[in-house]
Write a structure and sequence with these properties.
2 copies of one chain form a homodimer. Chain A is α/β, with parallel strands linked by helices. The first copy, chain A, is built from 7 helices and 11 strands. The first copy, chain A, has a single domain, classed as NAD(P)-binding Rossmann-like Domain (Rossmann fold, 3-Layer(aba) Sandwich). The interface between A and B is medium-sized, with 33 and 33 residues.
Amino acid sequence: MTNISILGSGHMARALAKAMLRGNNPVQILGRDGPKTRDLVESLGPGATGGVIGAGITGAIVFLAMPHKDVHNAILEAGDSLEGRVVVDISNPVDVSTFDRLTTEPGTSAAEETARLLEGRADVVKAFNTTFAATLEDGQVGGQHLDVFIAGDSEQAKEKVSAVAAAAGLRPIDVGPLRRARELEAIMLVVMGLQVSPEHQHFNWDTALRIFP
Amino acid sequence: MTNISILGSGHMARALAKAMLRGNNPVQILGRDGPKTRDLVESLGPGATGGVIGAGITGAIVFLAMPHKDVHNAILEAGDSLEGRVVVDISNPVDVSTFDRLTTEPGTSAAEETARLLEGRADVVKAFNTTFAATLEDGQVGGQHLDVFIAGDSEQAKEKVSAVAAAAGLRPIDVGPLRRARELEAIMLVVMGLQVSPEHQHFNWDTALRIFP
């Protein structure tokens, strides 16, 4: 059993919480919006607790379930409470006004920026950026399991995230060092672009990116 | 029926040829190695013809079935014979000594470099870089069709490549302009790295990258 904290109360926070609870890992939700957070915690049922961002973080694994642009402030606010934990960056730094570019500079990634902000106080893992909320909540797409691509520089931290992903019925795939987040984020520019494209009506945020078999 | 030319005589040339013949599109193989090219053409049977690189190109669609580093010379040698054709860049500019970096600069792609070399003489399409030879030859993985991600700046050229991919029993997915090749090439650093990783024995150049469902 691993205690999980999720910073955020949106679609991805809900989906991650459901996945973690499926694997019998207790979840703490810390949201900015009090009533929304309370509603989410209540709907999740047993195993879920909640509070506002800034309250004490209890999870050994902390998911940053927020847009990339909000990560900087969240880390500042969390301060020392992230010390020694595994921080999971799930973000996709995609310019959602055009779906034509990443908002990060070439040669880096959102996850590497998160690691720089944390200055070694926590181990950063990139994961769950390729799993959309609806499919993650279901745990499958059309009877097929979901792949969770995991990048990070700490083997121990990646093993912890792999374990909770596997417990949720997903397939963790360790893809190497944290800098592989560049490629994991890049491909989502393609995959997210397909979801909003009028020429691809059958892709509607309900798809998954997978390696076969 | 679309005439296809394939420059190259290796694994990907063979796999592309089989896929195109499956769709009843005649194939011309132009290889550097005469005997090897002849053997390949013979093994392909009816619908396949062959010659050496430098011979007249007959295909409306021309696949550059060679490593990225050889594309420059192939285009120089082909000269005016590529004029007005659709040129398909299938390459993955991955440093195969480390599987840790792309050999292209950040902010560009092999396909865009190919387009620059052609100076507007032909329409360049990125496609078939995510389909490994063995799976492309089979046309499926574990009973599942293969996705062919297609990027390009000419809608007409992409439609031609989509049509021959669909005829081969594959699912073409138009992902947008040629610059999306950056992301299609980037993700293969991850996927190819997994094939050679001792920790992923079950990935052995027999996998496919797909969007589900």
